[in-house]
TrEMBL record:
Entry protein name: Cellulose synthase catalytic subunit [UDP-forming]
Domain of life, source organism: Bacteria
Chemical reaction(s) catalysed: [(1->4)-beta-D-glucosyl](n) + UDP-alpha-D-glucose = [(1->4)-beta-D-glucosyl](n+1) + UDP + H(+)
Protein source organism: Melaminivora suipulveris
Keywords: c-di-GMP, Cell inner membrane, Cell membrane, Cellulose biosynthesis, Glycosyltransferase, Membrane, Transferase, Transmembrane, Transmembrane helix
Enzyme class: transferase
Primary localisation category: membrane
């Protein structure tokens, strides 16, 4: 199924068949439909000729004017293709982007590294290596995402008696029971034969209250005597005590929908070699970026690119990764590799790699069938990413996907790029400081004129920007990737490099969920690297202003301006990173989900008032009440929620009322009522589908504007709290509630 990147202009063009864009689209479609493309020899010859032409285009030397004409023509073609819907246009844009970037890299390697002193060479080769890393990631990224498989559910056989048995594992260590409850309630109510559905809480915290909770509900409870190998060891211990044909694994804060098994299991019935099927990690609470920058449900979060595009692209190459939760694994292949991998701290991806080496298939279904809690604070988020980065570096070191048996070329590239991605720490820091080498020390990192640098570098950057915007625009906005990397670069660089040197240095750390942030504050300990980078870049910018006043000629003047523009962009990124470090108050331990569901209020005098939900959580519900009376706070009521022909009623207390809205807090729900609440709210698949990939498509200039605004906010927060920051204290901000 092709991805149709349509805009308002596309619709207008289709309505006006005489427009230039409509005629262009007709020509493209006519070319694609030519019967000669079905002849194998023609396709082979076309590929060979195209490769030769590409090599010529990349390597042919051009004068400054010739390069400018080439750049302008190719970018105009890319802009035209970007207004043409269809996957063929996307592939053509990728080819143009690769051409522009390859020309730039070829020119960089052949024409710009004739360094005459050690200072130029040190900074120049450092920047070149960072650019080569970024170029490699760009190329493999295009390979991964050019053609997402877009797998769809396969129905289960009609004969229910043939459906296999499934164990549901909910591993937990230090999370509170209130967080785990919802996952267990929803897992119990999956639409699957009851005699073939077994739910187990795997308690590595060995807590009696968890044991008692499971006993009262009638679900399995497993604990072990130690915590060896952390989550992987916990799951492996449970595998030794259970025997169902399949295992579905959910982190204890990931609440599955009732439809999870019926939506996912059909692929196992169709493909005997399928060992694992992964679904997206969707979050109903904001992560630190979304919370601190107030972008929740406004723009995609940091992880959506992976689950929205990358995993779907991996699936085409039979290289979908196991991500530790929201997935189903066939027991036999899992036991064949010795259970969940324990050699690294990213046991999930390593497990999938091992199964792929044995020739088993993996799959990805891009339909949210569970939702969980995001990390509450930036420090916890950074810690989680450090673990992921360290684990991926460990896999690269001890079980490199480029080497060893069992993998096809596409699988090797997909796994390799997943690991290569986490090495961005050092290159990102190089990009954030590279122009300072010239502004402070006069080092020439490019042995070329400023005009030639602009003529080659600008097309490379512009093509990559609009092409990635087209591919990723539903799940990642332009320029935000640089913000995410800038926030994490300093922290992941050291553990990644150490893990490459000594993979045994890895340590598993559990990411806490379900906490609160009682007071807004500026996290100085996390923000220190960004503040230092901001100050150094700001100083470099002011040095640039001084050097402009004493520039001896136009060539030097242009070089200074280019480095100052680059430095200004780095200032924006560093200041946006500072804004993320301003932790926003979060007083709810049970986040609310904004969704409209049918509901009814029932009062003690027998009156019934029809209404709908505004949001819900484990502990309460917000209602929109049209024309209803204001109810005093503290009034006991019953609220009924509906799903198709199902209904359940819950006792509650009014917490506020007025302006057509009402807030209720549930009052003393029994375990049965809590399970009913989960079935009618969190276990509904339609709740999560509403938010998945439905934002407005990315517009690069608008995204750049949003990053600049966030950066200005970050600078304002630092300036306003400078006296306290100098003293290294957490800075209490205003009462800004999430």
């Amino acid at each position: 199924m092709a991805t149709d990147h349509r805009t308002f202009a596309d619709t207008v063009a289709d309505r006006n068949p005489q427009s230039f864009e409509a005629k262009w689209r007709a020509q493209v479609r006519r070319l694609v439909d030519l019967p000669l493309w079905g002849v194998p020899v023609v396709r082979v010859v076309a590929v060979i000729i195209s490769a030769l032409l590409l090599a010529v285009v990349i390597s042919v030397p051009l004068s400054l004017s010739g390069q400018l004409v080439f750049a302008a023509g190719s970018f105009a073609g890319a802009l035209l293709l970007n207004r043409t819907p269809g996957r063929l246009s996307t592939l053509a844009m990728i080819v143009l982007s690769i051409t522009a970037s390859s020309r730039y890299i070829y020119w960089r390697v052949t024409d710009t590294i004739g360094f005459t002193n050690w200072l130029d060479g040190f900074f120049g080769f450092g920047l070149l290596l960072a650019e080569l890393y970024a170029f490699l990631v760009l190329l493999i990224g295009y390979f991964q995402t050019a053609w997402p498989l877009q797998r769809r559910p396969v129905p289960m056989p009609e004969d229910v008696a043939t459906w296999p048995s499934v164990d549901i594992f909910v591993p937990t260590y230090n999370e509170p029971l209130e967080v785990v409850k919802q996952t267990v309630f929803s897992a119990m109510q999956m639409d699957w034969p009851a005699d073939r559905l077994n739910v187990y809480v795997l308690d590595d915290g060995r807590r009696d209250e968890f044991r008692d909770f499971c006993a009262e509900l009638g679900v399995g409870y497993l604990r072990r005597g130690d915590n060896s190998h952390a989550k992987a060891g916990n799951i492996n211990a449970a595998l030794a005590q259970t025997d169902s044909e399949y295992v579905a694994i959910f982190d204890c804060d990931h609440i599955p929908t009732r439809s999870f098994l019926q939506v996912c299991m059909g692929w196992f019935a169709r493909d005997d070699k399928l060992a694992m099927l992964q679904t997206p990690h969707h979050f109903f609470s904001p992560d630190p970026f979304e919370k601190n920058l107030d972008t929740f449900h406004v723009m995609p979060n940091e992880g959506e690119l992976f689950y929205g595009i990358v995993q779907d692209g991996n699936d085409l190459w039979n290289a979908a990764f196991f991500c530790g939760s929201c997935a189903i694994i066939k027991r036999a292949p899992l036991m064949e590799i010795g259970g969940v991998a324990v050699e690294t701290v990213t046991e999930d991806a390593h497990t999938a790699l091992k199964m792929s080496r044995l020739g088993y298939n993996t799959a990805y279904l891009e339909l949210p069938q569970a939702a969980g809690l995001a990390t509450e604070s930036l420090s916890a988020h950074v810690g989680q990413r450090i673990r992921w980065a360290r684990g991926m570096a460990q896999i690269m070191r001890i079980d490199n996907p480029l080497l060893g048996p069992g993998l096809k070329f596409g699988q090797r590239l997909c796994y390799f790029n997943a690991m290569l991605h986490f090495f961005y720490g050092l290159p990102r820091l190089v990009f954030l400081t590279a122009p300072l080498a010239y502004l402070f020390l006069g080092a020439h990192v490019f042995q070329a004129t400023a005009a030639m640098i602009t003529a080659y570098a600008l097309p490379h950057l512009a093509h990559a920007s609009i092409t990635n915007s087209r591919i990723q625009g539903r799940f990642r906005y332009s320029f935000w990737n640089e913000v995410y990397e800038s926030v994490l670069a300093w922290y992941i660089m050291r553990p990644v490099l150490l893990a490459v040197i000594n993979p045994k240095l890895g340590k598993f750390n559990v990411t806490a969920k379900g906490g609160v942030v009682e007071q807004s504050y500026f996290d100085w300990s996390i923000a220190r690297p960004y503040l230092i980078l901001l100050l150094v870049n700001a100083l470099g910018f002011f040095v640039g202003i001084w050097r402009l006043s004493v520039a001896p000629d136009t060539v030097v003047l242009t070089t200074i301006i280019i480095n100052m523009v680059w430095t200004a962009y780095n200032i924006i990124l560093c200041s946006a990173s500072l804004a993320v470090a301003s932790e926003t108050r979060q007083v709810r331990s049970t986040p609310r989900v904004s969704v409209a569901l049918p509901a009814a209020l029932r009062f003690a005098d027998g009156r019934t008032l029809m209404c709908e939900t505004d949001d819900f959580s484990q502990s309460g519900v917000g209602l929109r009440v049209q024309g209803g009376p204001d109810i005093p706070a503290g009034t006991p009521v019953e609220v009924a929620l509906f799903r198709s022909d199902e209904e359940a009623t819950f006792p509650a207390i009014v917490t506020f009322s007025g302006g057509g809205r009402m807030g209720l807090q549930f009052d003393g729900l029994s375990l049965r009522q809590q399970a009913d609440l989960s079935r009618l709210t969190f276990a509904r698949a339609d709740v999560w589908l509403e938010f998945w990939g439905n934002r407005q498509h990315d517009r690069p200039l608008r995204s750049l504007k949003s990053v600049i605004i966030i950066g200005m906010r970050g600078i304002g927060q630092v300036v306003g709290n400078l006296p306290n920051i100098v003293r290294g204290r957490r800075v209490a901000l205003g009462e800004r509630s999430s």
